[in-house]
Design brief:
This protein has 129 residues and is α+β, with helices and mostly antiparallel strands. The chain has helices spanning 10-25, 31-50, 93-100, and strands at 2-5, 55-61, 66-73, 103-108, 113-120. Helix 1 (10-25) runs antiparallel to helix 2 and helix 2 packs antiparallel against helix 3 (93-100). The chain is globular and about 50 Å long.
């Protein structure tokens, strides 16, 4: 699934809904899917706040049920370190992505950057029948 987005706050909601819809189509639900939607929200929010539009979101699933999310924008500034002030009101998004994903990172990509994460998704429960 690939979604092109303007660099506006409304894009965060669009990305969440599109991600949830894709996960449902791929039979990926439950807590792991909730975590993925939260991580998508964080990466798109960061791209809107700190990047340069337009933005794009790509979700893909490998045969091993490893989900990969990539968010790209037109800024070549890679994300910095996590904040060290525990009383800060923002700045924990990448910390959450790091904690909830199996792997995450950022890379330069032409005239911009891509921030990504991967997460192995559990197999769906067997159907009764």
């Amino acid at each position: 699934m690939t979604l092109l987005l303007p660099a506006t706050a409304a894009s965060v909601r669009s990305a969440r809904h599109a991600s949830r819809d894709a996960l449902t189509r791929w039979n990926m639900e439950g807590e792991a899917a909730d975590d993925v939607v939260l991580m998508v929200d964080e990466l798109v929010t960061n791209a809107v706040r700190h990047g340069r539009g337009p933005l794009w979101l790509r979700l893909s699933v490998h045969p091993s049920r490893t989900l990969v999310c990539e968010v790209g924008d037109g800024s070549d500034v890679l994300p910095g370190p996590y904040p060290t002030d525990p009383s800060a009101e923002s700045g924990r998004g990448l910390f959450l992505v790091d904690a909830l994903s199996d792997a995450f990172g950022a890379r330069a990509a032409g005239a911009g950057k891509v921030v990504w994460f991967s997460r192995r998704m559990p197999s769906p429960p067997p159907t009764e029948g």
